[in-house]
Protein 1
Amino acid sequence: MITRFMRRPDKYTVDGKVVLVTGALTAVGRRLSQELVRLGARVALVDSISDGSGEQFSAHLNTRASSARSPTIYIETDLRSHHDIRMMVEMTVLTFGSLDVLVNNAERHADEILGEEDAQRICDSIDVNLRAPVVATWVFSRYLKQAGLNGVAVNVTAMAGLLPGRGREVYGAANAGLIHFTEASRGLAPQLRVCALAPYHMDTLAVDSGQQRLLPGQRLGSLLTLSSDQVVRSVLRCIEDPSLSGRTLVIAGESSYKSSYLLARLRMVLIMACSMLVLIVQRVFGRRVAAWVRQVSALAEDAMQNQRIIAVPDETEDVLSDAAADEWSSATEEVRKDSL
């Protein structure tokens, strides 16, 4: 009996490679750039900050490098601009001679409830979190095709793209779109291997400031908090593991990638199952029952909007005033008679 073993793909190494990192001046971007230089890569540091801190960080990395040539360059880029995205790729190739890895790490938060969010912040969040990575990957893929090279693109997204939440409608939708783009780009391999990373919660100032606006019961526990080093190690894994093409790695604290991802998928399956159950009930009991439920729900929503329901604090439940209760009962009875 002959046993056949599947050969594991060779590990991709960043030593000697050229890596472009957007959001390079963020906590994760800085640690990732430092680690890439330590591992022997040349790095294009991309960010929108123009106060000189980008050049200082690049000079700091260059002075600490073991090689004689400068391993980093800072490129100020507005990721909302298609022209700037193209120029950052061209400048990287012009400086280092090639481009092997693209890390889309930049992000723009929009954490207010949709009705209270600023219109410009909505546009910026979609542009930076979704449109910019897609356009950058497109420009990168065209370069690889023209140069006859293979490359890797890593999209750093967020768990909000898998688990929608109140107050992150725009941010979550943009990340969900990027996760879908990553999985749909599986067919670009082997010339361009696209994968994504979705951290749950990082101990960065941007995330922590957003957590301060949550209620105490909604704040995340320390067990789910990720350090920048943990995220950097996961990004490196995405770069180095050829088997991750088209996949999204989800990390939450010390949880394993697969278990966290399965939990997110399980939630989606449960939502689909509930939807199917509603359809079955509608098919079995007829459309009249479904219509009656919808009308009663509409009446309840109207009552809420007109403030007929009085919310009582502490442990008590919501109650109706006497007048509103009488109106509610008569309206419900009329709907029931009409449906019959």
Protein 2
Amino acid sequence: MTDTPAAPTPPPPQHTLLCVDDEPNIVSALRRLFRGPGYRVLVADGGRAGLAVLEAEPVDLVISDMRMPEMTGAEFLAVVAERWPRTMRILLTGYADLSSTVDAINKGAIYRYVSKPWDDNDLKLTVQRALEQQHVTRERDRLVGIVARQNKQLRAMNAGLESQVRARTEEIRQTAEMLDLAYKELKQSYVEVVPVLASFAEMREGDSKGHGRRVAEMAREVARELRLDDDLVQQIYFAALLHDVGKLSMPDELLRKPFTAMKPEERLRYMRHPAIGQAGFTGVESMQDMALLIRCHHERHDGAGYPDGLQGDGIPLGARILAIANDFDSLQLGQLVEGQLGKREARAFLEENRGLRYDPRILDVFLAWLDSNPELAAGTIKEFRLTSDALKRGMVLARDFVNDDGVLMLSHGHVLDDRVIERLRAMERDEQHGFTVYVKHTE
């Protein structure tokens, strides 16, 4: 008896990618990244050349740089969206291209933007998810076509074929269930828009980078401790990721100041950011509940918050959770009061404001969760930003210290002593301006 040879494994489906950039090294890097089974890579050195390729061949996904001569990435992807709407679109961009990136999102309906330099694994995963969404969309269209054809056949059937009609009706019911499942999968992919928007807000965080993600993770865990349903937990998490999106329109000089150090007119401008953040989602009906949490995350339990002066249970539950998580992280960043607080000091501030700023019941849950998570014992912040007059002997540099000419003066990990501290202060006097020094959190 001879063994039957195993059937060969079918090759993975091949997707056609078009990489558009006027820089040969970028194109070469993308070609190398997607070399291998599953992808066929086409290249073009500009927007017009890319359109010529699209006219000649079917393309599943386009990766385009923002800055190109003759036609920008935003202009190119806008044409692609109009003429080949089913082709997925990814934009490569840098920090300086922020306004152009917003234009590309609005006009080019891009799936995702990726900052340069990119992480290879992140870019490959982004492309994979884009192609999966494209597959769901195509499958939905195929099923819609099946339903339409079957309905047409049913209308043409003879009334005497009742048994056949019943069989066809069952087929349609099953097809409708499949269509509903495909639609839910497509709807799920839309939640990826939130991380894209959150990354825009994070670009403005500067020294406090990661604040939105830390607040979101804490708020999500507290919501779970309160045994809220999954949809509300996700809504709170998304609101926390985007709670500072209203600050995108505000100047860096204002955002670098602690709230208690702002002038009255600066405070009034700063206090508009929750309402501005909510207004950004006015046209997105499915995000209205989340946007309300963004608006209310600076309300206080005693009614002394802003923008609406809500009080107690009149503040949405998610916003009460978000307020505690946001302040705990902001205190350690030096955003709420002057000077960065340690984890124990930030905790003491929360407890002192029980029933004033914060809902006592939710605060108890937050503090209990904090106690049960030893990984937070060192605080959420790993470094402090100090001026030279706050430096002390024994502090350890968290970052390299570089002077105005770009010369490395002290390396990351250097332990400060009195001589070094005095030398830094002398340099400030010579340069006639203060320096910012980053030291490690040692609590």
Protein 3
Amino acid sequence: MVGVMCLGLAACSSEDPDAGTNGVAKLTAPKIQSRTVKAAQGAGAVHLSGTVVSSGHSYKIDMRLKDEGGTGSVTTAGRTFQLLRVKEHLFLKADADFWTHQGSKGSGGTAQGDTAAADKLDGKYVKVPQGDPAYKRLSGFTVKGALLDGLLTLHGKVEKGDRGSAGGVRTVELTGDKGAGGTLDVSLEGTPYPLRLERAGGAGTLQLTDWGKDFTLREPGKGEMVDYGAQLPTS
């Protein structure tokens, strides 16, 4: 009887920890990284949320992205604005306080004038001209391919870490330079999408969800939009 129990325990202890998974945890770290990057690049859409620190500035982002564009919100320095890009057309929407603050950075004008102008833009989509310096800076939050390529890079030697979970989904961890170069949690269920990222150097933590879940992108109607032509009003 004791022998049977021991055999039973031995069988239990030797159970495959990857049973019921997609099996990528059995691969080497470089192969897992290759699989998850390929999966991300091939997905039609993704929901990206969390924080990003870049050039000394912290951004809280909540964006839905696909190849044709993206939509969502960005918060920085206590102010939130909405971004919408449909192909090459980029739109920015914010409240009057945001535009008043932006206007105060410019030269000339009065506080009263800034407030009046800001009130006209309150809650409106403002079209960002492609020639305006803000276009390149803001559109970077909406370009799926380029954004993922930059975010999913782990620095240093890539190694396989512990198994865990993200959003209730089983994952395997990848680390760059033992975590100093970033940490990536890869799904062990279904397609091996990246689900959570801790960027190198404490440069933010991001959740990546809704892979392949399509959404509608629509340019704002005339009554919802202001088009200043070649330059943003505060540039």
Protein 4
Amino acid sequence: MQRSHIFTLCRLFCILLVWMNAGYSYAQYEYLNEFEELYGDCIDDEESTIYGGSYQKMPRDTRLPEFPGGGDVQFTRYVHSNIEYPDVIDSVVPSQVPGGEETVYRAKGIVYVQIVIDRCGRATRQEVVQSVNEAYDNEAMRIMQSLPVFRAGAYNGERVKIALVVPVYFTRNRLKPQPQEVDYYDYESDY
């Protein structure tokens, strides 16, 4: 093969890889809209019994709400991939090397949020039931308010409101050191 053909094949291969990756990224989250059309313009503004959580005991044959894409695993992935960690510092470990940088760790904890999945599959009535700190509570609430439409829960063949208590895990990880800012214009010149 000529060198130009090899170069062209390499370029086409790279373009194909980029295109496949973009398609995969889109397909990864395509399932989130799975139940959007199921309920159309549904509005659940009537007062009715709420099963589960801190409300009423859930009957045995109740079908729980289903997160798009397959339930608990996808729900956990959604929460984990949407966390934006606030910089809440737990501890600072001094460097073991002279002149080295200290290591800063974020606080860890679990925020428990109760949500009610209404008869239209929408997450409503978000409420923190166990707090860690204000920043983590706000982040957990932000995630719960951004949830996609679920398949609504059911009891005796009728859609019902169901309360769920969701743990949002904040793991203890290291904060990346911020690069030291250098002001290039604040120096004395010999020129």
